[in-house]
Amino acid sequence: QVQLVESGGGLVRTEGSLRLSCAASGRTLSSYGMGWFRQAPGKEREFVAGILRSGGSTVYADSVKGRFTISRDNAKNTVSLQMNSLKPEYTAVYYCRARPGVTSVHQMRVMSAFGFWGQGTQVTVSS
């Protein structure tokens, strides 16, 4: 089994910053594509960011480009999401995602593919 645990969420003001972290256990993440999704109340879960095993290839949703940065540390078995210039529309539960067998970072956009999810961490941006 792969267990993913997110941390770092909380309440932040508009234009503030947060750093989310995802720690894995059960397996090392070096062979997995990693990503972040989010889901606001009453809305569908949506893709936020993805990263390949090497960390050299990343992809972002258009809405967060230039504001969010995804990174990973395979030695520590973690993946992070640095969120800057936050806006109220970013309020959601953010979920860590792990997928085996990923060969292109763009495959991380596909939510329905087999993979593992963390329990989510709440991010609330106040206006």
Descriptive overview:
With 127 residues, this protein is an all-beta fold. Helix content is 0%, strand content 50%. The chain has no helices and 11 strands. It has strands at 3-7, 10-13, 18-25, 32-39, 46-51, 58-60, 68-73, 78-83, 92-100, 116-117, 121-126. The strands form 2 sheets. Strands 2, 4, 5, 6, 9, 10 and 11 form a 7-stranded mixed beta sheet that branches. Strand 4 (32-39) and strand 5 (46-51) form a beta hairpin. The protein is globular and about 40 Å long. The N and C termini lie far apart (40 Å). The relative contact order is 0.31.
Q: Return the structural class.
A: mainly beta
**Dominant shape:** globular
State the oligomer: single chain
Beta content: over 45%
Helix content: under 10%
Report the biggest beta sheet as strand number plus sense, adding barrel if it closes.
7 strands, mixed
- The Rg value, from CA coordinates, equals 13 Å
Mean pLDDT: 94
Distance between the termini: 40 Å
Query: What's the count of strands?
Result: 11
- Note the total helix count: 0
Low-confidence stretches: none
Q: TL;DR of this structure?
A:
The chain is an all-beta fold and about 130 residues long. The protein has strands at about 5, 10-15, 20-25, 30-40, 45-50, 60, 70-75, 80-85, 90-100, 115, 120-125.
